[in-house]
Design a protein that fits this description.
The complex is a heterodimer of chains A (430) and B (318). Chain A is of the alpha+beta class. Chain A has helices at 2-21, 50-61, 77-87, 102-107, 151-157, 168-181, 197-206, 220-232, 239-244, 249-254, 267-277, 321-335, 337-344, 355-363, 371-378, 392-407, 413-427, and strands at residues 36-43, 65-72, 93-96, 130-131, 134-135, 138-142, 145-150, 260-264, 285-288, 305-307, 310-315, 381-383. Chain A folds into two domains: 36-143 and 309-353, D-Maltodextrin-Binding Protein, domain 2; 145-306 and 385-427, 3-Layer(aba) Sandwich (D-Maltodextrin-Binding Protein, domain 2), CATH 3.40.190.10. Chain A is built from 17 helices and twelve strands. In chain A, a hairpin with a 2-residue loop joins strand 4 (130-131) and strand 5. In chain A, helix 2 packs across helix 13 (337-344), helix 5 (151-157) crosses helix 6 (168-181) and helix 7 packs antiparallel against helix 8 (220-232). Chain B has a single domain (90-317), classed as MetI-like fold. Helices cover 71% and strands 0% of the residues of chain B. Classes of the chains: A alpha+beta (430), B mainly alpha (318). Chains A and B meet through helix 1, helix 3, helix 4, helix 9 and helix 16 of A and helix 2, helix 6 and helix 13 of B.
């Protein structure tokens, strides 16, 4: 009897486990003509308020639509999103964190064609989302890379502030001068973060006729040689130490360990918040336009060329009917001036950068109020860091290996470029 | 060790009731069926989990390696095109060479260190339990913590390891994780440090089975410690040695997490191993069909080497 009971109990347990494993997810069918709920993906919701700002702004204008945020881990955002989309439980509004994944999603049929969403005329960053003549996402934010500089350390080193006319040689000279002036202190002339974009992003955008999709990487040589010289002269922390000690750009600039920093404009909001909270030191800082390839685009009478990728919103291909209309309407809102103003109020650089938006941006407490900063933030020609193509992810991996090999000093730039071009032929070329 | 005499065995009651001779066959098969059902019901939960989470994905993997699936689209059949591409892929070749290089360093080093530790800690000294725990500790430590700490230790200009080397007169200590020549040896050192505890435990267990009479007989015959080690300990340890070697080999071929957090395959491609190649192709470049083909290649590599080891062991023990 006891044995029969044990057998029966184990069978029952097995059956329960098997059935619970097959539990399906419930689908919320969109009700026609009733309140619509849209889910939107986001990351680090506690420290990245832009998603909630967009959601709140839209809900204020459209009381019958509810926008709910779904949080993802920021480092593995695209992998987690891929898993959710492949399982059919992805969000309705998909935030495009990295341009290089847009073509993967689009090729996999995960994004709705949003060419018919009306966008303001002077909005930037739309080219990144154009694939085969149709548009698959709408940009709400466009970051670009600029130079952040510490006025207090400049004064201490006795170096003049940037005037917006720098070429890369000027930049290197200034960094060496700062390093010399700051000798004996804990501060370096500049800080360069470990990402491949800190060198390659500028090279790809600024060198005429540079195109990584062609497999020709010779344009990177000059940029790497300059950086390696700055490293050798100890004007900035070298790549190996940076990696071993896991330095952060927020820490290095915020704690005044470097007088200059090339970084994306998203750092403005973070720096202001950290200074207000006391996590960063309290010092005067400013923004200068990115150093240029040559004189032709340098100076405040020209439009400086820099790089940066937009952040945009796409719509899940599984969304239909009334929900789809609401989703497209939300995209149109995100690109509009109303949304741009609400984003500028929290220190984000929106894709739509007209005069009103720039004014609102600088009304934020803590933003520097000098003319050069205003010029650097508002005037630039921003080229994409990642060209939109299905080959981009693979090419960027090849270039990442080149970056680590050269910056760590394991391989000279010449042979590294040759090896990368060979790899392109072998793994991608056709 | 109790020795059972023949009388004692005969006096023990039979385990299962003897079926009557009349309907013996039917009763026996019903009993066997019941026993089989009972057995299955106990292993079924575990087997279901294994089937759903491991077996089915592996079968799907073999299928996927013959398609060009990119996670979202349909999996289009491409036959052996992925494998042809693998053979010509320079990065895959580099990853295979790196994996073999890593294994060639890691397997003998870990084996010797683990065995040495086990021999040392096999005595009933005071505090031996503490040292055994200390040796095992790295194995259960978080891999991210290990990577951060060893990164700092290996820092070429400021790290303690190079400071010590410079103190002993070495003028140009190796660049360790920042040099493409020394990155793999550095990873092997950390990996050995991490794994030695686990294999030490296996060896300790094996050392308990070495009969003491053999050692005493050898000592009486005048054998030195080293002679005793090679002629008594090692042969008696063969089953454990075989198991450790097989596990070490398979785990070395599959190494992934330590390399990913310590060097991410860098600098350049000097520490790129097969597992990371699979991860990059699959999750970063969304080429799941191609990544599956590389996984199948790794699978066959492990199987062939393991079968070879089994055959070798069989030959030896005859």
């Amino acid at each position: 009897m006891k044995r029969k009971f044990v057998v029966a109990a184990s069978m029952a347990m097995v059956a329960t486990l098997a059935l619970s494993a097959c539990g399906g997810s419930s689908d919320d069918a969109a009700e026609e003509g009733g309140p619509v709920t849209l889910s939107m993906s986001g990351w680090s919701l506690a420290t990245t308020p832009e998603f909630q700002v967009l959601a709140d702004g839209y809900m204020a204008q459209n009381p019958d639509v509810k926008v709910e945020l779904k949080e993802y881990d920021p480092v593995n955002y695209n992998t987690l999103l891929t898993a959710d989309l492949a399982a059919g439980s992805g969000p309705d509004i998909i935030v495009q964190k990295e341009v290089k994944f847009v073509s993967t999603f689009q090729e996999g049929g995960q994004l709705v064609d949003v060419t018919d969403v009306e966008l303001p005329d002077d909005i930037g960053g739309t080219e990144a989302y154009d694939i085969d003549g149709a548009s698959y996402a709408v940009p709400y934010r466009q970051d670009s890379w600029v130079v952040f500089y510490n006025k207090a350390l400049y004064d201490q080193a006795g170096v003049e502030y940037p005037d917006g006319s720098w070429t890369w040689d000027d930049f290197a000279e200034t960094e060496e001068a700062l390093a010399a002036g700051l000798e004996g202190t804990a501060a370096f002339g500049g800080y360069q973060h470990g990402w491949q974009s800190t060198v390659q992003g500028f090279a790809n955008a600024q060198v005429p006729d540079a195109d990584i999709l062609s497999g020709d990487f010779g344009h990177l040589k000059e940029y790497y040689e300059r950086v390696l010289k700055l490293q050798d002269d100890k004007a900035q922390v070298d790549f190996n130490t940076r990696n071993a000690n896991q330095l952060t750009y927020q820490g290095e600039f915020g704690k005044q360990k470097a007088a200059m920093l090339t970084m994306g404009s998203w750092f403005v909001a973070t720096l202001i918040a950290q200074q207000a909270a006391g996590e960063a030191d309290d010092f005067d800082w400013g923004i200068a336009p990115a150093p240029q390839y040559d004189e032709s685009t340098a100076g405040i009478d020209n439009v400086p060329v820099t790089f940066g990728d937009p952040t945009g919103l796409g719509i899940n291909a599984a969304v239909t009917g009334a929900k789809l209309d609401a989703a497209k309407d939300f995209l149109a809102y995100a690109a509009s001036e109303d949304a741009a103003l609400s984003l500028a109020e929290i220190g984000i650089t929106p894709a739509l950068l007209n005069d009103t938006v720039v004014e609102t941006y600088f009304e934020l407490e803590g933003t520097p109020d000098d003319e050069l900063t205003e010029f650097a933030v508002s005037t630039h020609k921003t080229l994409p860091e990642n060209p939109t193509s299905s080959k981009t992810a693979a090419i960027q991996n090849i270039l990442l290996d080149l970056h680590t090999a050269v910056m760590s000093g394991s391989e000279p730039i010449g042979s590294a470029i040759d090896a990368a071009e060979e790899r392109f032929e072998n793994e991608i070329g056709d | 060790m109790a020795t059972t005499t023949a009388t004692e065995v005969a006096a023990q009651p039979p385990v299962s009731p003897a079926p009557p001779a009349v309907s013996g066959k039917r009763r026996r098969s019903r009993l066997r069926r019941r026993n089989t059902l009972l057995g299955w019901s106990f292993i079924l939960p575990n087997f279901l989990g294994f089937a759903l989470l491991t077996l089915v994905p592996i079968i799907v993997l073999f299928y996927m390696s013959l398609t060009n699936w990119n996670v979202f689209g349909t999996a289009n059949w491409v036959g052996f095109a992925n494998f042809e591409r693998l053979i010509g892929d320079g990065s895959f070749r580099i990853s295979v060479l790196n994996t073999l290089y890593y294994s060639a360093l890691h397997i003998p080093l870990t084996f010797v260190v683990a065995l040495g530790l086990a021999l040392l800690l096999n005595n009933k000294l005071r505090g031996v339990a503490f040292f055994r725990t200390a040796a095992f500790f790295p194995y259960i430590t978080s891999i991210v913590a290990i990577a951060i700490v060893w990164n700092l230790l290996f820092s070429p200009d400021y790290g303690p390891i190079n400071e010590i080397l410079r103190f002993f007169g070495m003028e140009n200590p190796p660049g360790w994780l920042t040099s493409s020549d020394w990155a793999m040896p550095a990873v092997v050192i950390v990996s050995t440090w991490r794994d030695m505890g686990y294999y030490m435990i296996l060896f300790l267990a094996g050392l308990q089975t070495v009969p003491r009479e053999l050692h005493e007989a050898a000592r009486v015959d005048g054998a030195s410690t080293i002679q005793r080690f090679f002629n008594v300990t090692l042969p008696s340890l063969r089953p454990t040695t075989f198991f450790v070697t097989v596990m070490l080999t398979i785990n070395s071929f599959k190494i992934f997490d330590l390399i990913l957090v310590m060097t991410e395959g860098g600098p350049g491609q000097s520490t790129l191993v097969i597992s990371q190649f699979i991860y990059t192709k699959g999750f970063e470049e969304s080429q799941f069909g191609y990544a599956s083909a590389a996984s199948v290649a790794l699978f066959f590599m492990c199987i062939i080497v393991t079968v070879a080891q089994f055959l070798l062991n069989k030959k030896r023990s005859v």
